[in-house]
Structures are given as structure tokens and as C-alpha cells.
Amino acid sequence: MSTPGPMHVVQTFIGEWPKGLAELRQAFSDWLAEDARYENVGLTSTGTRDDAIALIDTFAEGLDNIAVDMLAIAQDGERVFTERVDYLRKADGTVLATIRLMGIFVVRDGRIVEWRDYFHAAPPSGGA
Amino acid sequence: MSTPGPMHVVQTFIGEWPKGLAELRQAFSDWLAEDARYENVGLTSTGTRDDAIALIDTFAEGLDNIAVDMLAIAQDGERVFTERVDYLRKADGTVLATIRLMGIFVVRDGRIVEWRDYFHAAPPSGGA
Lengths: 128, 128
Hints:
Number of strands of chain A: 6
Oligomer: homodimer
Strand content of chain A: 35-45%
């Protein structure tokens, strides 16, 4: 059986996110290497798959799934570059947060070994 | 004369930044299209080359040049994806700010028509 290529891995991984929280967790479990290094650069940094999965719970209160607009994607060897808009959503489709970002994935032997998302997390507003 | 390709344009553009403020401004002038759309996503957005050049003055007090570690770069058609560390420096080499980021450039006819850098700009710290 051939190992899926980096582009296929990343697209399949992200393709699971909109389906629901169970599928989102399962995708992290299926596609991250056990020692995957995952960063939301300047915000969070984890060094194991288990810690990455645990981090999902901190993304947004009430999160069920993440819809993604893939604005651009490119592969160079083991690296996959993405420009995306991620929509963190509740189960009823309500958008909790919209994040414009770029992310880079390094894929080896069919698993994501490094993943860095870059975006500006604005400080909480003081209100209307 | 052939038009330089997107990868060459981006590498030449960024290659000027470490040389000094005059060269940095000149690089913006030489390589951005007149109606270039340049965003530091979530932070600033400009729609002309002149406005982009004016924005340089706001990057950091005392800025002279920008050194760049190009961690990864890839081209897909007219798009160039970069993962970088940008070091905003004074003339004596003192680093004013270190920015981990990804940026995407869209190049047409040898000029940058779109440029988006993505990074987390931490709010100013309240002190030690």
C-alpha cells in the first residue's frame, strides 16, 4: 500500500473538520504523528498528538466543528503551505470565530510531524 | 526582455530589505504594482504602492532595515508562499522586533499585486 502524499494528507485532515467534534478529534488522532509539533505561532505550542487533541477544547467555548475556505494551497516536497479562512462553529452552524490565517504542514510517512498556523489573535474587545 | 518569474520577484524584493531604509523603500517602489493590495492581516491594509511605502514608517520606531530568515518558500503559478522570521533592525544591527510569520505574494507581469503577511502581534506587555 502506498503512503498518501503530503498534499493528500493535509486535504484529507482538514476535510474532516467540518463534520463535527468527534470527527475533528479523530482527524487529529489519525493524521498527526505521535510526536507532532503543533503551534499556533505566538499563542500555543504542543509537542505530542495527545496534547494537540487536548488543545481542541480550548479553541472556543461551544465549538463543534471548523469549516474552512481554502484560499490557496501548495506543496513543496514534504511541506504543504495553506492560506485559509477557518470558521469555528457551533453544532447549529453559528460561527463563534472567523480566523484568517496561513498554515504550514510538514508531512513524513503519511503523518503530519510539524504544523504551524499563523494569525493575528486580536485582544478581546472592551465591548461595543 | 523576459519578465522575471514570481519566485524571482519575491526573492529579489525581500533580498533588498536588509540593506537599509533607502533600499527598503526603493524595493517597495520597484516591485509593488501601483495598485498593490498589501495587508498585515488583522492589523493594516493598504491599496496602493504609495500607501504601502508610507506604512514602512509605522513598522517600528528607529527602523533602518529588515533581515529575513527564509524558513520555507514555494511557488504555485502566480502565487509565492513564504514562512519567515523578519528581524526589524536599527542601523547598528540592534533588533527592534522579531516577527515569525507566513506571507503570500501574488505576482503578475513581474510586479507584486497582492501581498498578505500573517502573524500574531502580541499586545504591548504591561511590563516585567
